[in-house]
Design goal:
Layout (H helix, E strand, L loop, with lengths): L3 E3 L6 H7 L4 H7 L13 E3 H15 L4 H6 L10 H5 L5 H10 L1 H4 L3 E7 L3 E8 L6 H18 L8 E3 L8 H7 L3 E3 L6 E5 L10
Parallel strand pairs: 5-6
Antiparallel strand pairs: 1-2, 3-4, 4-7, 5-7
Length: 204
């Protein structure tokens, strides 16, 4: 069965595409997606066409920051019904653990793992087997960052956001959106931070 993602992942796609001179409906059609499928953010879309749309849009516009620009408008509520569960968790660590547990209710295309060490922690994400997309990884990183940093209510910043990709041409967008250190050509995609941050309280 093909992995899917909720249509909320493409929120504002039409506006961002038009801003860079794309015909969003032509791009959607070329990738086998119908514009009506984006009307309800809870619609489930097939992963491969969705990722192709992101990568094709980036290639046509020459914007290797396309996924970041598309993802930066996300909020904690973008998680859908799961957000109602997470907002009652007592610490950042509990929020992350519950998000990992319920990740298939949010996005079937991504695997997430939290690894903790004595003084540091790493939250790593990957597309499931058979899926590959630089822009897909960019939007996932942006959504994760926006949800955990700006939405979780724990008042924290990761030490670093890590990307396997090489330094993008539009690195300034990444630096604006991710207000912490960035590492490109990293050994993984994800974030790293002191393990003590897992105990930060949720102040919602």
């Amino acid at each position: 069965m093909q992995a899917r993602a909720r249509a909320v992942m493409l929120t504002n796609y039409t506006e961002v595409a038009r801003h860079f001179g794309l015909d969003p409906y032509a791009m959607l059609g070329r990738c086998g997606l119908h514009p009506s499928s984006l009307q309800d953010p809870e619609n489930w879309l097939p992963g491969k066409p969705l990722l192709r749309l992101l990568d094709d849009s980036a290639a046509v516009t020459g914007r290797d920051d396309f996924g970041v620009l598309l993802g930066e408008s996300r909020t904690f509520a973008s998680l859908g019904p799961v957000s109602l569960l997470l907002k009652h968790e007592i610490t950042l660590g509990h929020i992350i653990a519950r998000a990992v547990e319920y990740r298939r209710l949010i996005n079937e295309m991504v695997d997430v793992h939290l690894r903790t060490y004595r003084r540091s922690a790493v939250l790593e994400w990957n597309l499931v087997h058979g899926l590959h997309s630089t822009q897909g990884m960019n939007i996932l990183a942006t959504i994760a960052y926006r949800i955990l940093v700006d939405g979780a209510g724990c008042k924290w910043q990761p030490e670093c956001v890590h990307f396997r990709q090489s330094l993008p041409v539009h690195a300034a967008t990444f630096q604006r959106v991710f207000r912490c250190s960035l590492e490109f050509e990293s050994s993984f995609d994800g974030i790293s931070f002191p393990s003590r941050c897992l105990d930060f309280p949720n102040e919602h």
